């Protein structure tokens, strides 16, 4: 069963990015987060949307 909400650490581990990049993406408005009390979470759907929006590597480059 897939999780509906990722912690910041889980998101970073799942998508192979660091916390600095995570917070930069949030600040830039590229990644949506939700708050549960003081805890920051990322919805699974928002995580997938973020991943789908990443640019692809140019094979010719």
From TrEMBL:
Residues 5-50 form the Helix-turn-helix domain. It comes from Alteraurantiacibacter palmitatis. Coiled coil: none annotated. This is Helix-turn-helix transcriptional regulator.
